[in-house]
Every structure is written in structure tokens, then in C-alpha cells.
């Protein structure tokens, strides 16, 4: 089995060769796309092994027991890379591994990756961006918070201490004198709670607070929901630059806040999605924001006014592929199509330039749906129309994991784990001259394909079975809420009894709260 | 299963206009604000049907019917919900059995007051009580006739912006919130640096946020977090004189009465919403 490249990105230093950065399991490759050779390679190593021996248990981290298991299992393997991004200056690469660590690399003159820092975040990062100042990272996490960190930590010694182990709770003996339960006999009334309080008063050792992060960081804003994406948007107002942070969450919200130092000011919300939002995409040169997620349409927003310009339907296009798949596999068509509404899950949104019929440069939106073997290509000019919902569907045969533009070609990373070759598929976009006026067509970019051969040929066997790979690559559908538990039982709304409501509506105090998605 | 359905049936036994009995609506006091629950909430504030909650304030001109075009239009009236003559301006977040709501309603007869509560049974109780009070009292006997008070089930920590537009509210009450004693639960508290930004979003400049609790630690936590937030400033001393709702809040909430019975201490704090700073 060949491990797919879960993230790809382009590095384009002015006056130098173009590089493609590709993450494969725990490894990052940097390929010189001009010369067609691998310039450097880096592998994340498991730094957590030391702490996975049971320290976790003693400390009572904030993870559920089941999840603790998962992290310690993961620790025996090298951590996988889950995000990869390049600074605007093209000088730095930032990678996030699934042990919550943010890695910063400098790209040296000869395309070498020089690891500069590793910082372990308190919660798993879901989205990360280097701001245009090339000095700040913003990181949105699973717990709903957005932090800013300096790209280059000011004190190197401090960051070295902040190895992944540091986030684990240290059992500290607190002075008896300093600890006082915040509950008193006046605030707890039931017998059981009184007893618990008494026991607490007599207890001598307390497993104390989490250690604060040992590196410079700032909490900018937060949702009480899992964040799924974050983008930084700038626009000119009265000749002055105004910057914003746009965050998307699992509870259908898109929030627009001011950028630091005023990130406490919420300017507004783009509301209208009825399912989770998983991806945001700003259209360069416009005030248009495109959002996608669990709804069978893309939101096209005029984000400065928080207005939904249109819902761009992609259901038909996705249905089309599902129908074709069903025909191939011989599955029951009506059944598959019935489920299709829930199957439309946008997992990726990108923009790519293309030359229109007059040779002028335009932009196209590229849309990937999770586990769907095609990519939708929509020219921005069509996105802005009121009605037209036509688009170009490229059948690429495998699901699209990531997309990046390098030179004038668009490189797709595909999940070809069983099929073998073709993990990276470069193509060129152009405006078709056929009947469908304005549509974008594509052809394979053989030249780039040859250049990337060095990478796809290299043996990059990661120890991953199908299940582990699925977990790494396809998390978006799990964001969907299981609503209306009566609905699935044949559509009849069961009248909930009180006890059931209690189960559903409230939870015991000791049950750990976490913003995890509970899988069915 | 014998107990609860019985309780449910007994709720229905009462006559129309009769007050609901609290004992049939009790529900344990802790809800996990992070879980999905089975909530209903509007996609956006414009899609919220307030007519069901404040029937006396529905505008007589029929509202626009939804258009075929799914695209939201500029005026935001295409959700098929009735237009209202007034908007909700006062929110009691975690209103419980609604003691404060029903005490405030006659004192602010011209203002729509809304309780938000995460527990289903407790929400139902408040809704029933509002209905009963509306039957029992006319606007002549009691100012407002309790037409200006209602309650919805909501998880405000997640969905506050789904109900209220920017600067819609003049007052928010946070009365006797769940203290979440454990340090690792502090993110579940109703007051936090990041949530305060959402309160600032829905409260208009000059509006006020009121907090009350019997847990001193929580009081300090709330004061600390509101004072640290650049959009809020604590109001103290003589500036509070003449704020009648403050007195009502201290004495009229159900939880406040319980604290008084048990001889507890009540800690009160008031904060005002400042203007947003100019863009840098």
C-alpha cells in the first residue's frame, strides 16, 4: 500500500526554483519542481513516548479514558502531519502533527528544511495560518479557541522545554494553606454534596492545575464549539487597511472578528448554514467568502456586510457521481441516492488561476467532497451569478485530499492507496471553447507530472492500515450532528419521555466535557 | 419508567389559566453546555418566530411570504415569520423557574423580556406560567399583563447570536449560574474572556450586564473576567442608584430566595458595555 500525501503546499521564492512541500504520514518532503528532485526530507518523531508510560493516568488529563488510549497508541508511531502551510514570504513552513505540536521550519537557499521550533498546543489544532506580517501564527483548535503565537519564538530555551510532555498535568503538592474549596456549607445543600465537600476539606494532596503553556501565546477569541477553519482577511476602508479573523465552527457559525489587537470585537456573523461549516475560502480580489460543510450547497457571502449572496447548489453534481458509482458497483441506486443528502460533505475549497478565452487571468473555485472521486471547478464569475449552477466536474477516480497551485499547473493529491501510482496529479486549467461557454476545462500536465515522479516513486511506506488512514484523511463527515434521534426510526417522531430527555438534555456533573464528536 | 410519565401527565391535569406546579417540572440542575442536545434554534435572528412568544406584539400587517428564490434578500424579511412591533431587549440567561422574569415584567411593561434556559422541563414550566399569568391578569390589572415575558430553551453559550442581532439587548442577567467548581470545568462557566465578546456583541453600548451568585469564588471570577474585557467596565457606587432592576434581581430570583432561606451571602456585580474602539 502506498500512503497518500495528506497535505501539499507550494513554496515559491522569487528568483528561485519552485518547490512542492508534501506531507506523507509523519514525513515532509520538499521537491524542487524545476529540477524534479527531492531537495530535503524531514520526519516527525514521537516525542511523547516518555510520557505515555502511565504519567497520563496519574495526572488525570482532560481527555476521556477512551481517548487517552488513542493518544498513547499514537505515541508508539510517529505522529502524522495534519496541516501544512507556508508563510507569505515563502521562507517558512509550518506543520501541525496529530500530537498537537506546531513545527516551524525555515527553508534555506538550497531547499533544505531547517527545523526551528516545536510547540505543543493545549488542544488539537484544526486550522492554522501565518499572518501576512510573516511573524505571527494563528491557530484555531478543537476546543473553540484561537491563539496567536510568534512565528519565531523569542526565547529558544523556553520552547525546548515545551516539549509535548509539558502539556501533561504535573502532580504538584499544593500547600494546604493555599487550597480552599470554593464551595461552602452555604452553597451546597444536598447530603451527598455536603459529604463530598467534607471529604475535600480533609484531603491533603491535590492534583493541581495544568501548567500554563511555556511559550509566548495569546488567546485571541473563542467559540463554545469545535472550530473547523480560520482565515485572515484584509480590506481597504477609507484608504486604511482593516484586518479580520474569520472563524467557522461545527455549530453552523461563521464569525467575523477584528484582527489583533482588537480581536475581542465581533463585527458580525454570517449565518445561514443549517449544518456544520468545515471550510472557508476567500476569493482573491473580491469581498466574497465561500463556505462549505455539511449542507448540500456552498455559501457565497459578501462578508463585509455578512450577507448571503446565494446558496450555490452542489447536490446535483455530487448525486451524479454517486449515481455513477452505484452503477459501477451495482449497489441499490435508490438507496444510495436517498442517503446522498447526508453524503454531501465539503472537505476542501481552493482557488486556482486560469487563463480565459481572451488570455486574461481569472480565478476558479475548486471544491472537493469527502470520499468523492471528483473535483468541482467553478469559475468565480459563475459563482456570483444569481441562478447558473453549472460547473465542470473532473472525474479523477480517487478522492481529492489536497490541492495546490505550482506555476501554472494545479496539483491534486489523491488517495490512491490501493491503486498505487498517481498520488499526485498535476493538471492545467483553461477555458473551454466548446458549447458550454465560460466553463473551465482541464488537461493533464505531463511536464509537471514528470517532474514530480521523483516524489511519487520514492518509497514512502508509512505504517498505516486502511482504518488508520481513513481516520487521518476523512474526519469531516464525523462533524455531522446526530439530530432528532426519533427521526432515524422510520421517520415517526417518538414522544420523548422525561427520563429520555434527561439523558439527552443534561449530563452528570462528573462526565467529562469535551468538544469531541461522539461517533454513533 | 413509572415515575416520570406520571409527572408529565399531572402537568396536563390543570385547567387553562391555572398556574403550573413546580414540583412536576423539576430537573437536575446541571447541563453540559458542550454537548449537542436536541436543540431548536433559528438559522439567523431574522428567522426566529417571536410571534409565538409575544402574540400581542405581532405587527398587524401580514409578513412577507417566503419567496421561491432561496437567496436571502436584502431586507431580511423572507423567512415567513411575523413582523414584530418590538424586539426583545432584556435577556435572563439561565432563567430557571423564572422568578426574575415575572417580577420584572410589570416593572418594564413596555419592554420585551426573554428567559433562556437549557433544561427542557424548566423551560416548559416558565412558558406555562407565562400563559397562566396572561389569562389571569389583564393589562389593566397588571402593567403589561405579562404579555411582554416569555421563555425559550436554548444553549446560549453556543447559540446566542442565532437569537439576537448586534446591539439588540439593553440588559443581560446572569443569575446564580452553575459554579463549575472544578478548575478543568472552567471553560463551561457562563462567563469567560471569549464568551464575554459574544455578550458585548448582543448588548448595545451603554447597556448593562448583571451578575449575582452565592459562590464568592465565582463572583470574583466573573468580576475579574468582565473587568479584563475591553468592552466592559464595572459599575459601582452611586452610578447604581436608581437602577431598580438591580433591587429586583437581588430579591426576586427563585435561587436568590433559597439563598436567603439558607442564610447564604449574595454577591452582585454590574457591568456596562463600552463603545467599540475606533479601528486602528
TrEMBL record, chain A:
Organism, scientific name: Oleoguttula mirabilis
Its GO CC terms? cytosol; nucleus; tRNA methyltransferase complex
Q: What is its main location?
A: nucleus
Record's InterPro entries?
Answer: Trm82, WD40/YVTN_repeat-like_dom_sf, WD40_repeat_dom_sf, WD40_rpt
Descriptive protein name? Transfer RNA methyltransferase 82
Superkingdom of origin: Eukaryota
Q: Which GO terms are recorded in the biological process aspect for this UniProt protein?
A: tRNA (guanine-N7)-methylation
Entry's localization field: Nucleus
> What pathway does the UniProt record associate with this protein?
tRNA modification; N(7)-methylguanine-tRNA biosynthesis
Record-stated family: Belongs to the WD repeat TRM82 family.
Is Secreted one of the keywords UniProt gives this record?
no
* SMART domains in alphabetical order: WD40
The record's Gene3D superfamilies line, in alphabetical order, gives: YVTN repeat-like/Quinoprotein amine dehydrogenase (2.130.10.10)
Function summary: Required for the formation of N(7)-methylguanine at position 46 (m7G46) in tRNA. In the complex, it is required to stabilize and induce conformational changes of the catalytic subunit.
* Alphabetical keyword list: Nucleus, Repeat, tRNA processing, WD repeat
User: Which segments carry the WD repeats?
Assistant: 270-302
Ranges for the region named Disordered are 49-74, 482-520
From TrEMBL, chain B:
Q: Does the record bear Mitochondrion in its keywords?
A: no
Q: Might you give the EC number(s) for this enzyme? A: 2.1.1.33
> In which residues is S-adenosyl-L-methionine bound?
94, 117-118, 155-156, 175, 253-255
UniProt subcellular location: Nucleus
UniProt xrefs under InterPro entries: SAM-dependent_MTases_sf (IPR029063), Trm8_euk (IPR025763), tRNA_(Gua-N-7)_MeTrfase_Trmb (IPR003358)
Q: What is its main location?
A: nucleus
HAMAP family reported in the protein's UniProt record: tRNA_methyltr_TrmB_euk
Q: What is this protein called?
A: tRNA (guanine-N(7)-)-methyltransferase
Q: What is the species of this protein?
A: Oleoguttula mirabilis
What's the name of its gene? Answer: TRM8
Amino acid at each position: 500500500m502506498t500512503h497518500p500525501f495528506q497535505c501539499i503546499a507550494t513554496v515559491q521564492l522569487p528568483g528561485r526554483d519552485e518547490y512542492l512541500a508534501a506531507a506523507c504520514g509523519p514525513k515532509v518532503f520538499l521537491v524542487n519542481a524545476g529540477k524534479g528532485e527531492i531537495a530535503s526530507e524531514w520526519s516527525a518523531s514521537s516525542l511523547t513516548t516518555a510520557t505515555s508510560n502511565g504519567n497520563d493516568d496519574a495526572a488525570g488529563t482532560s481527555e476521556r479514558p477512551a481517548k487517552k488510549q488513542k493518544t498513547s497508541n499514537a505515541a508508539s508511531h510517529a505522529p502524522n502531519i495534519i496541516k501544512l502551510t507556508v508563510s507569505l514570504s515563502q521562507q517558512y513552513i509550518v506543520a501541525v502533527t496529530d500530537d498537537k505540536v506546531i513545527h516551524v521550519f525555515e527553508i534555506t537557499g538550497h531547499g533544505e528544511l531547517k527545523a526551528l521550533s516545536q510547540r505543543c498546543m493545549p488542544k488539537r489544532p484544526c486550522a492554522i495560518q501565518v499572518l501576512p506580517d510573516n511573524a505571527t501564527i494563528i491557530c484555531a483548535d478543537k476546543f473553540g479557541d484561537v491563539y496567536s503565537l510568534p512565528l519565531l519564538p523569542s526565547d529558544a530555551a523556553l520552547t525546548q522545554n515545551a516539549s509535548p510532555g509539558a502539556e501533561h498535568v504535573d502532580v504538584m503538592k499544593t500547600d494546604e494553606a493555599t487550597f480552599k474549596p470554593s464551595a461552602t456549607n452555604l452553597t451546597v445543600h444536598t447530603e451527598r454534596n455536603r459529604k463530598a465537600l467534607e471529604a475535600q476539606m480533609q484531603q491533603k494532596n491535590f492534583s493541581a492545575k495544568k501548567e500554563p503553556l511555556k511559550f509566548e501565546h495569546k488567546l485571541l477569541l473563542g467559540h463554545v464549539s469545535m472550530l473547523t477553519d480560520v482565515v485572515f482577511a484584509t480590506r481597504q476602508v477609507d484608504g486604511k487597511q482593516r484586518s479580520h479573523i474569520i472563524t467557522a465552527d461545527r455549530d453552523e457559525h461563521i464569525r467575523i472578528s477584528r484582527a489583533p489587537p482588537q480581536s475581542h470585537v465581533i463585527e458580525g456573523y454570517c449565518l445561514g448554514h443549517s449544518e456544520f461549516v468545515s471550510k472557508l475560502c476567500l476569493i482573491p480580489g473580491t469581498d466574497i467568502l465561500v463556505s462549505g460543510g455539511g449542507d448540500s450547497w456552498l455559501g457565497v457571502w459578501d462578508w463585509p456586510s455578512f450577507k448571503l449572496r446565494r446558496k450555490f447548489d452542489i447536490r446535483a453534481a455530487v448525486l451524479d457521481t454517486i449515481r455513477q458509482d452505484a452503477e459501477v458497483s451495482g449497489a441499490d441506486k435508490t438507496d444510495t441516492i436517498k442517503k446522498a443528502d447526508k453524503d454531501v460533505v465539503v472537505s476542501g475549497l481552493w482557488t486556482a488561476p486560469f487563463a480565459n478565452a481572451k488570455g486574461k487571468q481569472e480565478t476558479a473555485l475548486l471544491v472537493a467532497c469527502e470520499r468523492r472521486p471528483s473535483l468541482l471547478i467553478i469559475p468565480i464569475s459563475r459563482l456570483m451569478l444569481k441562478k447558473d449552477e453549472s460547473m465542470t466536474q473532473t472525474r479523477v477516480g480517487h478522492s481529492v485530499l489536497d490541492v495546490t497551485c505550482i506555476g501554472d499547473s494545479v496539483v491534486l493529491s489523491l488517495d490512491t492507496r490501493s491503486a498505487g501510482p498517481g498520488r499526485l496529479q498535476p493538471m492545467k486549467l483553461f477555458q473551454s471553447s466548446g458549447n458550454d461557454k465560460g466553463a473551465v476545462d482541464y488537461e493533464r500536465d505531463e511536464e509537471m507530472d514528470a517532474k514530480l515522479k521523483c516524489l511519487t516513486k520514492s518509497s514512502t511506506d508509512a505504517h498505516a492500515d486502511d482504518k488508520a488512514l481513513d481516520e487521518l484523511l476523512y474526519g469531516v463527515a464525523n462533524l455531522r450532528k446526530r439530530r432528532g434521534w426519533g427521526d432515524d426510526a422510520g421517520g415517526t417522531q417518538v414522544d420523548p419521555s422525561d427520563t429520555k430527555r434527561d439523558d439527552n438534555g443534561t449530563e452528570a456533573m462528573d462526565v467529562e466535557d469535551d468538544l469531541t464528536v461522539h461517533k454513533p | 419508567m413509572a415515575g416520570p410519565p406520571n409527572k408529565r401527565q399531572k402537568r396536563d391535569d390543570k385547567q387553562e389559566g391555572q398556574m403550573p406546579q413546580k414540583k412536576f417540572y423539576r430537573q437536575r440542575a446541571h447541563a453540559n453546555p458542550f454537548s449537542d442536545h436536541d436543540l431548536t434554534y433559528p438559522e439567523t435572528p431574522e428567522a426566529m418566530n417571536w410571534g409565538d412568544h409575544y402574540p400581542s406584539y405581532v405587527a398587524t400587517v401580514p409578513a412577507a411570504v417566503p419567496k421561491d428564490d432561496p437567496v436571502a434578500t436584502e431586507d431580511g424579511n423572507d423567512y415567513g415569520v411575523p413582523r414584530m412591533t418590538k424586539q426583545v431587549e432584556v435577556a435572563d440567561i439561565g432563567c430557571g423557574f423564572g422568578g426574575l422574569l415575572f417580577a420584572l415584567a410589570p416593572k418594564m411593561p413596555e419592554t420585551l423580556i426573554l428567559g433562556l434556559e437549557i433544561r427542557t422541563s424548566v423551560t416548559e414550566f416558565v412558558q406555562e406560567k407565562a400563559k397562566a399569568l396572561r389569562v389571569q391578569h389583564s393589562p389593566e390589572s397588571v402593567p403589561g399583563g405579562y404579555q411582554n415575558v416569555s421563555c425559550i430553551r436554548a444553549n446560549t453559550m453556543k447559540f446566542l447570536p442565532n437569537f439576537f442581532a448586534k446591539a439588540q439587548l439593553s440588559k443581560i442577567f446572569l443569575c446564580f449560574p452553575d459554579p463549575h467548581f472544578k478548575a478543568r470545568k472552567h471553560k463551561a462557566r457562563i462567563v469567560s474572556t471569549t464568551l464575554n465578546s459574544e455578550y458585548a456583541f448582543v448588548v448595545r453600548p451603554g447597556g448593562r450586564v448583571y451578575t449575582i451568585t452565592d459562590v464568592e469564588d465565582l463572583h470574583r471570577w466573573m468580576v475579574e473576567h468582565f473587568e479584563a474585557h475591553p468592552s466592559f467596565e464595572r459599575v459601582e457606587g452611586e452610578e447604581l442608584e436608581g437602577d431598580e432592576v438591580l433591587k429586583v434581581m437581588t430579591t426576586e430570583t427563585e435561587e436568590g430566595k433559597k439563598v436567603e432561606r439558607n442564610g447564604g451571602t449574595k454577591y452582585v456585580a454590574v457591568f456596562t458595555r463600552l463603545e467599540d474602539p475606533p479601528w486602528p
